[in-house]
Structure formats: C-alpha cells, structure tokens
Amino acid sequence: MIRTYRPGARGATEVMASDGPEALEGAVWIDIADPLAYEGPLLQAATGIELPTRADMVEIEASSRIYREGGASFITVLLVVGLDSDSPASVPVSFILTPERLVTVRYSDPHPFRSFSTTCGRQGVPDSPMKVLIGILDAIVDRTADILERMASDIDKVSGTVFALRTPSGKRLSTDDLTDILRRIGQINLVLNKAHDSIQTLMRMAGYLAIPARAAELKTEKPLREELKSVLRDLQSIDQNAGYLSSNVSFLLDAALGRISIEQNAIIKIFSVGAVVFLPPTLVASIYGMNFEIMPELQWNLGYPFALGLMVLSAIIPYLWFKRKGWL
Fold it and tell me: pTM of the entire structure?
C-alpha cells in the first residue's frame, strides 16, 4: 500500500494501481507498507528509485544498512514491534532520502508511523523531507523511551516478587512462581536487547545524516542539522538508560537464581534433617531385631517398651541439638 503526503496537506492520500506514476508527483513523503507487485515499478517510474526488497532490508552488514545510490541515501533501521504480545520482534524499516522526498518502506506497522501519520493529519504535513524524517525520528525516540519506561516498571515489579518472602496472596513462593519470575526476566531481557539493537541503528542513521558533507548533499538547513544533533543526543541518552536497565536485569537474574538455590537448599535440608533424626531409631531397631540366643532384654518384661523409648529418645536428642544450633 502506498500513501503520499504533500506539504501542507492534512493526512495521506492512498495511491491505487490505476492512478499511475503522476499520483506520486509533488509528494514530500511516500510511505510504502507491505509493497504489492505493482508498487515497486510505480515508484521507479515516478522517482527513479528502485524499491529495496525484504531480503535487502534484513542484511546485517553496516554497508548494506547505509549507502548512497543514484543521488539518494538508503538507510535501514530496526524498530521494536509487538510489545503487547508474547513475541516482540525487531523489524527493518528502510528510509530513502533525497532533497525532494522521503520514501519509507516497511513490512510491518510500527507505532511511531501511526503516531506521526496522525500528527500529519492534525497539524499538516511538513514542507521538506528532512522535517518529515526528523518528525518520524522524534516519534521513534518517544516510543523507544516509552518501551524502556515500561521495562523499568516491569523490572521493579519482578524485583519486588524476587525479594518478597510471600506472594501478594500470602502464600510462600512456589516452584511455579519462581518459574514465572524467570520467564518474566527473560521477556524483559529480550525486549531490552531488541531496543538496544534498534537504538544502535538509529544512532548510526542520525550520525550519518548529521555529517556536514551529507547534510550539504541533502540540502539540510542549519536548524534541521541542530535538530538532528538533538535527536542523536536523545538516542545516546536512552541508550545509556537501556544499558543501565540491562545491568539491573542481570542482577535480578542472579538474585532469582540465588532465591531458587535457597529454596532448593531448604528442601534438601529438610530431607537431611529427617534422615539424621530417624537414623538412630533405625539403629536401635536394627540392634533389637537381631536373632541371637543370648540377649538379656529378650527375657525382660519391660524390654519392648524400653526399646521403643530408646528409639524415641534417640530421635528427640538430634532434633533438639539441631534446634539449639539454629539449623532448623
């Protein structure tokens, strides 16, 4: 689907297959989502820009993510989507920038694009491609900051659970509770890693566009260069925050594993104490279970109660010893 945004207009105009290349003329921003077969040739006929394929967009080499071709700068970044689902993902988005227009190519629907599109519908479309790009970058920065804030809140909640003696319902933490804690920590770490990767690609993009030679090629005015530098500083700031949160997640994971180890040790201690407590009575019972002919207690009327009492006493003494030492 192709949507065109023209300077001063409110919102987008959807381009159909029957409209032809002239429908793209005068657009300052051409947004292509889930490109159809006819849309690549249509874009090339109208602008001379060859639409990158999905395979091109997922290349990890730096030279494949940022390059110039035919007077246009091709930049691919990663954005985090699916935050509200069980499987958040990083998706590539390509920005093709020329002095006349910005073309964005994506195979997903990231939140910043919806947000900036709404802004264009409410306030009007900016009059230059660089202003459009900076507006999208601002929306991406805001969204990334929201993601990190949400992860920080989740870390606080998990931390409270890890270090609590009991669940909010008053029960002791069970194996299922500890398993859920590990799952939540893993989910947080997954999102933070994807956010970090996204921030790194965005920082490379902002740094590339802020280069004086590149700014001259794209006819970027000084105020816009300053805005780019501001976006770069914002990205560096949230990158530091992401690193801080990642270190907190590492500490939280160590704490959770330590809590699991403590719980396991407590269970093993119960079995160990039980074994030690019942070992002396077993020894007494084994002795009096022997079938030797000469055993004085066999002819004693109180032999049986004496053996039972001895077994009980031999169990109580170790138990009291453990209590006195504070091992129970």
Answer: 0.78
Q: Is the pLDDT of residue 239 over 80?
A: yes
The edge-to-edge listing of strands for the beta sheet with 13-15 is: 13-15, 2-5, 29-33, 102-106, 89-97, 72-81, 66-69
For residue 184 the two structure tokens come to 């939540």
Q: What one-character-per-residue DSSP string does 70-123 give?
A: TTEEEEEEEEEE-TTSSS-EEEEEEEEE-SS-EEEEESS--HHHHHHHHHHHHH
pLDDT band at 95, cuts 50/70/90?
Answer: very high
Kindly state the tokens that stand for 16: 């159909």
Burial (Cβ within 10 Å: 0-12, 13-18, ≥19) of residue 292: exposed
Q: How many CB atoms lie within 10 A of CB 16?
A: 11
Instruction: Copy the structure tokens of residue 297.
Output: 């207690």
Query: What domains does the chain contain, in order, with CATH numbers?
Result: 2-264 (3.30.460.20), 265-325 (1.20.58.340)
Residues recorded for the chain: 328
CB 85 within 8 A of CB 91: no
DSSP state of 124: -
